[in-house]
């Protein structure tokens, strides 16, 4: 069969790339062959591989898989390797050329400046990110660690130029599930900023916010490795942020909102604590003993962790309530607050009462917030968003649920899969008090997944909902259908 013109053209271009290197020294035994750069030959080989892949895909209609570097497994098409299209093949070649460019730049700098050259950290950071994009997180971590070390050698142990590299490395550490190293890296970021700015400097606020939210999210999404220190550390960080903002900007500053909301999240998980986080037997006994004490002044001779945890658990409802009330106060008094902010904070306060079974208080607050939002011409869409259907509580802004709703779910490295891995489709009603009723499992995938069916049913039975509101009044809602998608085991 005659080769199509387009394929023949590609083959000719590939041959043209390699031909000069072959002809340069032909029939000239009396003269040494000129040197051909490794990079040039590499690019020619890559282009030739691209041509072969294109020919194969055109001939078979199949999707191509490209091998990684020696010793690495082949990348699948879903990992961004190749899909048979010119665009995806260009992406593969671009990634390989980028990797080669960084490696060449690093080799050149090492030859010129030695192993600790000042420009190496930047190039190593780029190389690490390239490995990261390809999913080679073990290699990326090694490269990032070297980049950090070189940055510290050249700029000093406490220089903030290493912060972006540490933040990049955190992504690969999390991708590999190296949670202890993730924890240590967050602590290192905090220490580094504190060493440069001082504990009470407002420039500490972004790193405090990031690390505090990380502790909460990690605790919420990973029950198999929960430790109570995560919650205690998060709580302390958010209180620290509030102290900085109060001292620098005042108690009514809008910057107070985020750490206050962080305290609310922390208190919710303190309230939900059932002893399933890790405590040693002696700490568990001390914790239980302290919870049974009638006053805070008793049982304080135990180890600090269970005592502190016990105090947080006992005070969780009131502390969370006070934090939300402070948010309402700040939004109400601030001329720069977004439209409807105070009313939406009252919705959060109503949600808090709902979570703790105080339905009458919650109903009154929902009605008040509803009327305020309806009265404000700038906020009618927020009424629809908040009250048009029941909402499972708590509605956490920066914590994603481990049971998700979308039809397409994101897998490792943010890829979307066309079909969910595991799901349970369920129908139920929500009464005006925010409780699920008449729960019926319609289907699941796999069909015999009894464990997940049971998990979803129990979760719905224990979930409190913000009820649907009509004219400011909570009403029953029937015939809700929800597919819960599990993105991991």
Relevant terms:
single chain; 489 residues; alpha+beta; 16 helices; 58% helix; disordered N terminus
Task: Present the secondary structure layout.
Elements lengths: L4 H19 L14 H23 L25 H28 L6 H14 L3 H19 L7 H13 L3 H19 L7 H17 L6 H22 L7 H16 L8 H11 L12 H30 L7 H15 L3 H17 L4 H8 L3 E3 L9 E2 L4 E2 L5 E2 L4 E9 L5 E10 L4 H13 L1 E3 L1 E3 L2 E3 L1 E10 L3
Antiparallel strand pairs: 1-7, 2-10, 3-4, 5-6, 5-10, 8-9
Helix pairs in contact: 1-2, 2-3, 3-4, 4-5, 4-6, 5-6, 6-7, 8-9, 8-10, 9-10, 10-12, 11-12, 12-13, 13-14, 14-15
Descriptive account of the structure:
Strand 5 and strand 6 (436-445) form a beta hairpin. The protein contains 16 helices and ten strands. The strands form four sheets. It has a four-stranded antiparallel β-sheet with strand order 2-10-5-6, covered by helices on one side. Mean pLDDT is 76; it is low at 1-84, 276-304 and 398-418. The protein is an alpha+beta fold and 489 residues long. The chain is globular. Helix 4 packs parallel to helix 6 (163-175), helix 9 (228-249) packs antiparallel against helix 10 and helix 12 (304-333) runs antiparallel to helix 13. The two termini are 50 Å apart.
- List segments where confidence is low: pLDDT < 50 over at least 5 consecutive residues: 1-84, 276-304, 398-418
Relative strand content:
5-15%
The topology string of helices and strands comes to HHHHHHHHHHHHHHHEEEEEEHEEEE
Kindly provide the radius of gyration, computed on alpha-carbon positions and rounded to a whole number of angstroms: 29 Å
| Overall morphology | globular
Largest sheet: 4 strands, antiparallel
Beta-strand segment tally:
10
Query: What fraction, in percent, of the residue positions are helical?
Result: 55-70%
């Amino acid at each position: 069969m005659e080769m199509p013109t387009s394929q023949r053209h590609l083959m000719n271009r590939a041959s043209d790339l390699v031909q000069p290197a072959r002809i340069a020294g032909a029939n000239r035994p009396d003269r040494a062959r000129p040197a051909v750069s490794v990079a040039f030959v590499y690019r020619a080989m890559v282009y030739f591989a691209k041509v072969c892949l294109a020919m194969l895909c055109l001939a078979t209609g199949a999707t191509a898989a490209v091998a990684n570097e020696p010793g690495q497994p082949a990348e699948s098409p879903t990992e961004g390797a190749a899909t048979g299209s010119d665009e995806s093949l260009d992406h593969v070649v671009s990634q390989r050329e980028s990797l080669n460019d960084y490696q060449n730049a690093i080799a050149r700098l090492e030859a010129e400046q030695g192993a600790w050259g000042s420009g190496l950290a930047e190039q190593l950071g780029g190389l690490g990110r390239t490995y990261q994009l390809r999913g080679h997180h073990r290699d990326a971590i090694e490269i990032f660690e070297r980049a950090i070390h070189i940055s510290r050698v050249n700029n000093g142990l406490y220089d903030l130029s290493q912060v972006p590299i540490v933040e990049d490395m955190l992504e690969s550490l999390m991708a590999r599930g190296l949670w202890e190293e993730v924890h240590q890296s967050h602590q290192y970021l905090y220490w580094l900023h504190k060493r440069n700015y001082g504990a009470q400097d407002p420039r500490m606020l972004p790193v405090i916010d990031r690390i505090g939210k990380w502790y909460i999210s990690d605790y919420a999404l990973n029950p198999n490795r929960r430790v109570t220190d995560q919650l205690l550390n998060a709580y302390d960080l958010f209180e620290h942020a509030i102290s900085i903002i109060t001292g620098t900007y005042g108690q009514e500053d809008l910057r107070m909102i985020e750490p206050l909301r962080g305290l609310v999240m922390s208190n919710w998980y303190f309230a939900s604590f059932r002893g399933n986080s890790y405590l040693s037997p002696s700490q568990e006994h001390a914790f239980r003993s302290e919870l049974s004490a009638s006053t805070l002044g008793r049982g304080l001779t135990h180890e600090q962790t269970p005592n502190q945890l016990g105090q947080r658990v006992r005070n969780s409802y009131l502390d969370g309530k006070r934090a939300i009330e402070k948010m309402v106060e700040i939004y109400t008094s601030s001329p720069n607050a977004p439209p409807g902010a105070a009313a939406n904070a009252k919705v959060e306060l109503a949600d808090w009462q709902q979570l703790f079974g105080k339905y009458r208080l919650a109903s009154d607050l929902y009605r008040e917030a509803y009327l305020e939002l309806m009265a404000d011409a700038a906020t009618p869409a927020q009424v629809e968003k908040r009250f048009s259907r029941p909402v499972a509580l708590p509605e956490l802004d920066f914590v994603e649920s481990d049971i998700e709703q979308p039809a397409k779910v994101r897998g490792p490295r943010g890829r979307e899969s066309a079909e969910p891995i595991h799901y349970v489709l369920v129908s139920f009603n929500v009464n005006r008090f925010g409780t699920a009723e008449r729960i019926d499992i319609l289907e699941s995938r796999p069909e015999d997944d009894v464990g997940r069916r049971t998990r979803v049913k129990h979760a719905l039975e224990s979930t409190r909902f913000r009820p649907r509101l009509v004219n400011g009044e909570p009403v029953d809602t029937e015939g809700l259908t929800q597919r819960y998608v599990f993105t991991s085991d």
